[in-house]
Amino acid sequence: MYPWLNEPAQQLTRLIVQQQLGHALLLKGIDGLGKRELGQQLAQALLCQHTSSEEQGTTQDTAAIIPCGHCHACQLVQAGNHSDLHIIRTDQRSISVDTIRQLTQVLSDSARLGHGKVAVIEQAEKMTEAAANALLKTLEEPAGQSHLLLISSQPERLLPTIRSRCQQWLLPVPDATLVLNWLAEQGVTTSGSAASLTALNVNQGSPLNTRDYLTAGTDQRRLQLLQQCAELRLQPQLLTTVQAGLLEQPVHLLWLQLLLQDALQLALGLSTTGLRLADSEPLCRNVSQWGVPKLTQALDELVQLRRTLQSSAGRPVNPGLQLTQWLTNIT
Ligand SMILES: [Zn+2]
Questions:
Q1: Domain check: are 43 and 142 in the same one?
Q2: Contact in structure between 52 and 145 (CB atoms under 8 Å)
Q3: Number of domains making up the chain
Q4: Residue 147 to residue 185: CA distance in whole angstroms
C-alpha cells in the first residue's frame, strides 16, 4: 500500500472488522492517490475469511492483519477470480444503465462463498443518470450482506441522492515531504528539490500523477511551453506554436495559470517563498514585468477560459478560437 494510504486503510479496515462500515462507501479524493488499490484492499478485507471469524475477536489489533492475504478468499481476490467480487471499471465515457442493472441483479443472488458480496464501482461519476437511478434502490435496500464501494475523484458529479446514501470518506492530499521522499525511493529523480516541489505543485499534489509526469519527461515539455508563452509578447510569430501547445492537454492551461499567479505575486512585490513554480523563478520574474493590471486581467480571463473549456463537454465550443483571442489580448 502507498505510504499515504496506510492510515486511511487501517481506519477503514478497523471499521470493517468492527462491522461499522456502512453497506455503501464513497471513497473520494483527487486523481492519482491510489484509490483503486485501496478499494481493492477494502474489498479483500470484506471478503477475507478471517475478518469476522469469532476466534479473531473484533479488537483493533485484528485490523492490522486483515486482509490476511493467504486464506482461500484472499487468494481468489488477488488472482482476480473471486466470484463474489464485482468490479465496474471502464475506459468508456460513461457507465450505462445496463451495466448497473446487471450488477444489481448479481448482487441480489446469494453469495457463492457465504461471505457476502462486494461491488466496486470505479470512477463512479461516469454513471449516467439512469444508471445512478438504477443503483439507488440497491443503495437503499442492499441485498443480503452485499457491500458497495464507490470510488470517485469528481464526487460532485454524482447525484446528490447517491452521495447521501453512502458513507463518505475523503482521502486527503498527502503531505508534500512524504510524497517527495516516496518519489525519491521510487528512483524518480529531478534536477533538484525545487524541481521536485514544482512537479508536485503542477500535479496538484497527486503522488501517482507526479510520478508519471516525471517518468514521462513531461517536466521538459512544461518548461519549454512556458518559456514560449513568456516570449510571446516579443515574438508574436510563436502564436500558433503556443496555441497548439496549450491545447495539447487541459493541464497545460493550468501550467500557464500557475506561471501567471507566480508572476503576479512577484509583480506585487511579495516574497518569493511559496512560488508554485519554484524551479522557474527567472521566468516568473520575466513575466512579472507585464505589470499588475495586465497580469490580473490575464489571470481572470484565463481562469474563466479554463472553466468554459472544462464545462463545454458535449457543447460546441471552439477552444482554439477562444484561446487565440485570449493570447492576442495578452500580447
Ligand atoms: Zn484472508
A1: yes
A2: no
A3: 2
A4: 35
State residue 115's pLDDT score.
Answer: 79
Determine the average pLDDT of the residues in 36-43: 96
Mapping DSSP to helix (H, G, I), strand (E, B) and coil, where does residue 83 land?
Answer: coil
Query: If you measure from the C-alpha of residue 51 to the centroid of ligand 1, how many angstroms do you get, rounded to a whole number?
Result: 7
Residue 175 within a domain: no
Segment 181-203 mean pLDDT:
88
User: Cα–chain-centroid distance for residue 206?
Assistant: 7
Q: Extract the C-alpha cell encoding 6.
A: 496506510
What digits encode the pLDDT tens for the residues 99-114? Answer: 999 999 999 887 777 7
Q: Is residue 197 part of a domain?
A: no
CA distances for 206 relative to 176, 210, 292, angstroms = 9, 6, 31
Using alpha carbons, select from 139, 144, 145, 128 the residue that is nearest to residue 161.
Answer: 139
pLDDT of residue 75: 96
Confidence of residue 55 (pLDDT cuts 50, 70, 90): very low
Q: What are phi and psi of 8, to 5 degrees?
A: -60, -35
Q: How many CB atoms lie within 10 A of CB 132?
A: 19
pLDDT tens-place string over residues 247-286: 998 899 999 999 999 999 999 998 888 899 999 999 999 9
Distance 67 CA to ligand 1 centre (A): 5
Cα–ligand 1 centroid distance for 101 (angstroms): 29
CA of 266 to the centre of ligand 1 (A): 56
51 and 147 share a domain?
yes
d(C-alpha 40, C-alpha 270), whole Å? 46
Find the 44 Cα to ligand 1 centroid distance in Å.
Answer: 7
